[in-house]
Amino acid sequence: MKTALVLNGPNLNLLGMREPAVYGAQTLADVESLCREACGAHGLALDFRQSNHEGVLVDWIHEAGQGHAAGTLAGVVLNAGAYTHTSIALHDAIKGTGVPVIELHISNVHAREAFRHHSYISPVARGVIVGLGVAGYALAIRALADL
Ligand code: CA2
Q: In this structure, are strands 73-79 and 3-8 parallel, antiparallel, or unpaired?
């Protein structure tokens, strides 16, 4: 059985505790549960992580590249949070490893501030899901299963 790696970036540990109008009321633990259910439905194992640190996310993408090359990892669902809009390091890590990444945003970043309209992840992502709430995680896992 292959694994889906779901990576969450900075401040996503606050999900459900603040800004429910933007991000909804579900917590990150709730998101992990829905991801586990989606993985179960698609014959994948789940590895679910969150970090507030850019370099940790880069290390995890490198680890994912090794897993993908070894045939044990289907790919990565990445909600890079605000690093989406700033991180050339994450762009380079995804490009350098070649691991399939589905970029995911809970909110519709294109309907928000202009600084959220640019993504360093999108050009190196296999696909992008934005604005569908936390349900987007399940869709992203399905996309990984179909790759
Ligand atoms: O919509 C998304 O999923 C984002 O990736 C969330 C990031 C934001 O910087 C991106 O532009 C879009 C922010 C995650 C912070 O989440 C919070 C949740 C509750 C309270 C405060 C922050």
A: parallel
69 located within any domain: no
CATH of the domain at 16: 3.40.50.9100
- Residue 68 bears catalytic tag: no
pLDDT of residue 1 exceeding 90 = yes
Of the listed 68, 83, 105, 137, which one is catalytic? 105
23 catalytically annotated: yes
pTM passes above 0.90: yes
Number of domains in the chain: 1
- Position 44 pLDDT exceeds 90: yes
Domain of residue 134, residue span: 3-57+82-91+108-146
Spatial CB neighbours of 49, under 8 Å, sequence gap ≥ 6:
5, 6, 7, 8, 60
Mean pLDDT, range 97-126, rounded to an integer: 98
Ligand 1 centroid–CA 71 distance in Å is 31
Q: Is 106 in the pocket of ligand 1 (CB under 6 A)?
A: yes
Tell me, yes or no, whether 97 lies in a domain.
no
pLDDT bracket for residue 21 (50, 70, 90): confident
